[in-house]
Structure formats: C-alpha cells, structure tokens
Amino acid sequence: MASSKTKTPAARATYRCSECGWTTAKWVGRCGECQTWGSVSEVGAVAIRTQPATYVERPAVPIGDVDGRRAEARSTGVGEFDRVLGGGLVAGAVVLVAGEPGIGKSTLLLDVAAQVAQAGGTVLYVSGEESAAQVRVRAERIGALADRLYLASETDLATLLAQVEAIGPDLLVVDSVQTISSSEVDGSAGNVSQVREVAATVIAAAKRQDMATLLVGHVTKDGSIAGPRVLEHLVDVVVQFEGERHSRLRLVRAVKNRYGPTDEVGCFDLSDVGIVGLADPSGLFLTSRDTEVPGTCVTVTLEGRRPLVTEVQALLDKTSASNPRRTTNGVDHNRAAMVLAVLGKHARLPVQEADAYLATVGGVRLSEPAADLAVAIAIASSLAGTPVPSGTVAFGEVGLAGEVRACTGLQRRLMEAARLGFRRAIVPAGAAAQGRLPDGIQVLEVTDVARAIAIAARLGPG
C-alpha cells in the first residue's frame, strides 16, 4: 500500500532587487531587470545573526592590570631550540614543527619533552604514528626517559582531549596533526576538514588550560606544510626543520613567531644516539687537511643572525662538448650559472670550455648572494691550478657588470672569521666605513670580481 505521506519541497530562498522589485531564486551581483549593481538581497534575511552573550566569563580589564608574566618564555632545556623560539615556550602557545619524514622532528621533540619533564613539568606525548612501546625504545636510545613524561598512542581527537583532561600537562606534543581525526567530521585523517578541526580544537584546549603545545606537521613534495594554509595562521609559531638525509646537520628556523624573532637559526647534529645542539657549528663546514689544494675558497654566510664559516669547492675540467655541464650541490644553481657567465665576460676566464662542478662542505646550502665572491674565486683557483692560501675568506655579491656589491652583516662576518683564526678577508669596497674592523684580520677591499681574483692569486704561492 502506497504511503499517504507526501514530501514537501524545501523552501527556496528568494532574492529581490530593492530598486525595481525584480526577483530571482539565487543571489546575483547585478539586477537582471534594471542592471543596478549591489541591489539584490535576500527577502526576509536577518541582518544580524549572532546576538550578544548574556554573560561574559572573562570580562575585559585595563591593559595595565593584565599579568604579563603569563606570557614569559620558559626554557625547554634545549638551547638551540630556545634560540629559535625566542627564549623558550610560552604557556598556551601552539608551535607547529614542520619537516620532511625522517629528518628528526620526532627525535628533537622527544628530547624537548624529556628535558621539560626532568625540570619538573608534566608532559603528555601523543603519537599517532607509533605505538607507545616504539616511542619508549627511541626515548631509551637517546636518553630521554623521565618520570613525568607520559606517552599515549592515539588517533582519535576525543580520546586525546580526554587524556589531556586526565593528566593536565604543562606541555602537549602531538605527533603528528595529520594522523589525528575526529568522528564528528567526515573524511579520513589528514584531509583538509580533519586537519582544520584537529588543529582548532587542540589550539582551543591549549589556550583554555595555558598548556604549551607542539604540533608535528608533514610537508608536501615542494616543501610546504601539508594541509590547509589556514593551519599556519592559527598557530603562534611555525618552525621549519631542514637538512639533507645524507648529512648529520639539521637546521631549525622560525618561519612565523609571535613571541620572538624570525631570523634566528638553530643548528643540530643528528646521530644514532640522538640530536645535539651545536652552539658553534662552523667546524662542520670546513675540510680538515694539511695541504692547500686549488679550487677551494672559504666564505662566511649568515643563517638568520648567525654567521657560519663555509667552504666552497669548485672543479672545472676541460670538455669538448658544445654544452658544458653545470652541476651544483649546496650552491644555488642559477647564481652559479650567473657567476660563471660573469667570469667569462668580465674576467676573461675560459669557463665555456670546461665542465663546472660546485659543492659545499658539510651539507650546508648557500642561498644568499654574499657567497658569490667565494664561488668566483674558487672557480678561478680551479682553472689556474693555484690554491687560495689558508687563512683567507671572501664574501660579497657579484653583479652582472662584474662589480662586487656590499652585503649585510659585514661586521659579524669579519668577527666570526677573526674568531676562527682567519688572517685575510677579501670583501666589497667600503668595509672600513661601516665601523671598526676586528683586530687580527687584514681586510682587502675590491670593487670588481677581476681584481678579487687577482688579489687571491697574488696571495698564493708564486
């Protein structure tokens, strides 16, 4: 027997032009009758949908009465991580730590969690990728065991919140935000809706309980943080983890920081026994050898505000191919090609007749223009077969006209070179006008790349 119930069609909204009364079933920006812009609006639409609350739990107070001590940073016990964060973690702050899989994010955060727990704080480490036993084995290997460090293997958001309510931690670590999902949201873990819901809920809990939170985030193939871009806007701090898989060096830099600078870089050494901060990492980027060899030049690069002494190596081998090879590792390929073109045009070097191979020592990546001069001198040294004498550094930007331009942080670069025992520095002209030069280092000013190469050649034997 057929049912007597009939389905009532859903009421459809009606939109009307305030100028001529023309109606339509959907909103348009321009009236189809009188062609007036912005005159179409919904019939019966409520102008204000959200009404004021009848009770305010935390009323506004004068700014002078706000306790600023609650926003003071507290050290995590890991000095290099504190440097990037601006002194440490702030209560209620949410930090997003992003990086490629296997680069050392979990190892670093487990070490941070143990340091905070050993200092007397309560820490909850929630792993959505590993079991608690697996995390415990890694913690034992890197020496990160602590009585006040609690482990949980959860992928459900509601259960995670229950764990937070039960333990009341001072620090929450979620590894990773893409593995947690909510049953109230459609879709699998890691999709846009789930990541947004998980992040918003965890952030709300962190602010409500003054709980510092570290969220691990995966990155896509192009290096950006996976998930919606709004995730980076919701959190207080975004920290990027960088490094090559074949190198032990790891760099941590702040992309966004509401509590400190974004131009600081932390250096770490990742090994089988854990991850260790490097307060003085320059030694990793220099080759240890007894004899001088052609094709090398030392430069001082700035990673954030930190000067790092780095060695550039160049090998040019004569070729009969019409298109010589240009291979780089750690050196920006486009800038290397530009420097080669400048040397061929303005220094009259036969770079078009040779394959060029450029690399850095220690896996560091040179991206700033100040490394151009060291690259040019290393190339010229390889072509001439004459080594640049030890104790010499060079830095400066090379222009397309062959000129050597000034670079930022000249004083810091010279002070770092002098501290490490370098005796000569080939720098852009005008260095003396920027302030007092450090003692113990001879500053050789140059205006163009040809003169810089000539000076470096005269310093060498012969």
From TrEMBL:
Native organism is Arsenicicoccus cauae
**Chain segments carrying region Lon-protease-like:** 355-462
Keyword presence, Zinc: yes
Record Gene3D superfamilies? 3.30.230.10, P-loop containing nucleotide triphosphate hydrolases (3.40.50.300)
Q: Which UniProt keywords apply?
A: ATP-binding, DNA damage, DNA repair, DNA-binding, Hydrolase, Metal-binding, Nucleotide-binding, Stress response, Zinc, Zinc-finger
Which residues are in the RecA family profile domain?
A: 70-219
Domain comment quoted from the record: The middle region has homology to RecA with ATPase motifs including the RadA KNRFG motif, while the C-terminus is homologous to Lon protease.
Write down what this protein is called: DNA repair protein RadA
Could you say which protein family the record assigns here?
Answer: Belongs to the RecA family. RadA subfamily.
Q: Where is this motif: RadA KNRFG motif?
A: 256-260
- What is the role of this chain? DNA-dependent ATPase involved in processing of recombination intermediates, plays a role in repairing DNA breaks. Stimulates the branch migration of RecA-mediated strand transfer reactions, allowing the 3' invading strand to extend heteroduplex DNA faster. Binds ssDNA in the presence of ADP but not other nucleotides, has ATPase activity that is stimulated by ssDNA and various branched DNA structures, but inhibited by SSB. Does not have RecA's homology-searching function.
State the SUPFAM superfamilies in the record. Answer: P-loop containing nucleoside triphosphate hydrolases, Ribosomal protein S5 domain 2-like
